[in-house]
Amino acid sequence: MATKTNPFTFIQQVRSEVAKVTWPTRRETLISTVMVFIMVAFAATFLFVSDQLIAYAIGYIMGTGR
User: Fold this and answer.
1) pTM for the whole thing?
2) Is 26 left (phi over 0), alpha (psi -120 to 50) or beta?
3) pLDDT tens-digit profile of 8-17?
4) Interior CA angle at 26 toward 23 and 27, to 5°?
């Protein structure tokens, strides 16, 4: 079971842990953000095309053919 820590000690521990974090640079953040948007665009395009192909195939099989 966890022991209780007083709030002042807890805040000191949090600050010391945050100081150990290696924060990304502005450039790294920008590159990561752009890459996320590119991958989202690729995924959206892939899913849209896949959905259209499946809809066409089902329509063809069911005889409603578009």
Assistant:
1) 0.64
2) alpha
3) 998 999 999 9
4) 115
Place of tokens 């499946």: 54
| 3-class state of residue 9 by DSSP | helix
Number of H helices, E strands in the chain: 2, 0
Distance, CA of 31 to CA of 39 (rounded, Å): 12
DSSP helix, strand, coil percent of the chain (3-state; round to 5): 75, 0, 25
For residues 43 and 48, what is the distance between their CA atoms, to the nearest angstrom? 8
Beta carbons of 66 and 59 less than 8 angstroms apart: yes
State both tokens at 40: 């989202």
H or E, element range at 16: helix 7-20
